[in-house]
Design goal:
Blueprint lengths: L10 H48 L2 H56 L13
Helix pairs in contact: 1-2
Length: 129
Amino acid sequence: MPNPAEITLDPARLTALAAIARRSRASLTGLTDAVYDMRERRRDLTRQRDLVLSAGQASGPAAAAEAAERAAALAAQMADLAADVVIREVEQQEASDAYAAARSNLKTAIAHAELVGLQVPAGVKEMMS
């Protein structure tokens, strides 16, 4: 590990580290929103399936058979969506780890910059709040 006294920083490098942290946070936010939307869609499909089955049972044998087919199609969509959610959750965890690392790097760089008396550019410290 390099000696902190030997590390050279300039304001442009701090700004670049802040940009990396911002991009990491944006990626994490996008994935979090996507997972939320997928879960909401899955809940909607569950409600649709339940309504289709309920309506089919109340309408007689022919309608019940048709409802069962429609419910099976909805269940297949739900299964596909559940698999997609698992994939997105893994990506979300990776993005979370990347953001934590970027934020840690920025925090360390800011601390070092302040230690050696380097001016921290406007907006860089705000990334830490």
